[in-house]
Amino acid sequence: LAVILCIIPGIFHLQTRNYGAIFMTMWVLIANFITFVNSILWPDYEILEDKAEIWCLVFASPFYLAAGFGLLGSATCTIYTMYSYVASPIILTVQVKKRQALIAFVITVVIPFILTGLSYIVQTAKYSIRPILGCANVHQQNWFFFVVDNMWPPIIAIVGCYYAGLTSYAIIKKRIEIKSLLAYNESGINTSYYYRL
């Protein structure tokens, strides 16, 4: 059900070309799909045998780890996009939209897979298997793993919080202007959708 429900907002984001939200929907869909398959493969607490090694090694572990980075990156991209609509409005030409799509792709897809690859360098085990949740990466507690893997989510979150603060300030400052600004840059987003997003 969670996988299917991800498709509904994904269609709307594809229509408005909100790339941060598109990639966020993609990562949520992937994470939900992995959780769904894992819950079928390891449905209870009694049997924790490694019965899907290729699934765990090639898809579940790396994509689930990348999803964590990707969700934070896509949330940050979405927040930055909302900030840019209010703080420095521009007409979204095809060239601007392509540049936004490329930046969002790098931040929400390329960087998460680079960070996932780096985590494989420092890991001590291929993956772990937990009841119901299935296979996932092994969390470790050493300084090298922290530098390579664990320090990035707080950094990405701080950047997102920074732009969220700037967005909130800009909204308070320019509340009256938001409707005309969104119409001016031809974003396809009305004020109601902007505030919900």
Automatic annotation (TrEMBL):
Keyword Cell membrane appears in the UniProt entry = no
Annotated localization = Membrane
Arranged from A to Z, the UniProt key words for this protein are: G-protein coupled receptor, Membrane, Pheromone response, Receptor, Transducer, Transmembrane, Transmembrane helix
Q: Which residues form a coiled coil?
A: none
Q: Name one GO molecular function term.
A: mating-type a-factor pheromone receptor activity
Question: InterPro entries from the entry?
Answer: GPCR_Pheromne_A_rcpt, GPCR_STE3
Q: Which residues cross the membrane?
A: 19-42, 54-72, 101-122, 151-172
- Major localisation: membrane
Q: Which GO terms describe its biological process?
A: pheromone-dependent signal transduction involved in conjugation with cellular fusion
Keyword field contains Transferase: no
- Provide the topology term for how it sits in the membrane: Multi-pass membrane protein
The domain of life is: Eukaryota
GO cellular component terms, alphabetically, are: plasma membrane
The record's comment on protein family reads: Belongs to the G-protein coupled receptor 4 family.
Tell me the protein's name.
Putative pheromone receptor
Q: What is the lineage of its organism?
A: Eukaryota, Fungi, Fungi incertae sedis, Mucoromycota, Glomeromycotina
Instruction: Please name the gene that encodes this protein.
Output: Ste3
